[in-house]
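Field: sequence (string)
Field: structure_tokens (string)

Example rows 1 and 2, in order.
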Amino acid sequence: MADLDALAERVRGAIPLTRHLAFRFTGFDGATLTLQAPLAPNHNDKGTFFAGSQVALLTLAGWACTTLIAESLMADTGHPHTPVDVVAVEGSQNYRLPLDDDLTLTATVTEDSRRRFRERLTRRGKATLTVDARATNPDGATVCEYQGLYLARLNG
């Protein structure tokens, strides 16, 4: 199991903006990453969750999900200390509802996408991965949907 607190600290250390989002990773099962963030530091002038915070968190969740999958793959292949560099290549989001409460976000990758990602990363040392994410309110209603493409490269 990935150390999600260590990953969150790594993110906060590398990307100053993320320190203000007050997010926390709450789970990862090998294909799905969950993240939570409070409304208080992320509200806009209307008292709802700021769209800019949402897209930052969605992008971050996609990056983290890709990073965790790539690092897990390296550990599974006997190379747990091989550095993996992940970058966002493209992303799109659709806002569905205003959110006047805390946000829960789920980023997930299909099994077929993970399989292709593993094959390419181990064979070529780089691969892209599509991550789908959904932000919800406490009632489970979708407030935002996201799809991002990430590139992972091995640096070792």
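Row 2 begins here:
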Amino acid sequence: ADADYKLLADFRHVLRQFLAFSEERASELGLASQQHQALLAIKGVAPATLSIGDLAQRLVIKPNSAVGLVNRLVLSGFVTRRMDDADHRKASLVLTREGEAILAELTVAHRNEVRRISPLLDVLLRQLDD
């Protein structure tokens, strides 16, 4: 029905606006959007840890892309690799103080944006039940 197309179009528009907001905030702090997503994924599994393979799965990217992403985050000082004592082929990703600080700043902005768009999302999601 036409109402379904409108609902889906409006929903995708709100999501895209949020993603554009997110990309802009990350860029203002010198991060690529995917770098922000990686920091959030690493922090989001705490107290557990994330491997590069786990990160690739969470970001829906290829493992070799995740390696490059992690290498850039390590070079930027936002992430460290912690080698597994039992198996040195395995490494866990850990945020540095700098990574924690930049993620905290981005998180405040994102929570505020989610609060701002939440009423609109509620309306759209309720329309799915109709």
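free_text_note (row 2): The longest strand covers residues 79-83.
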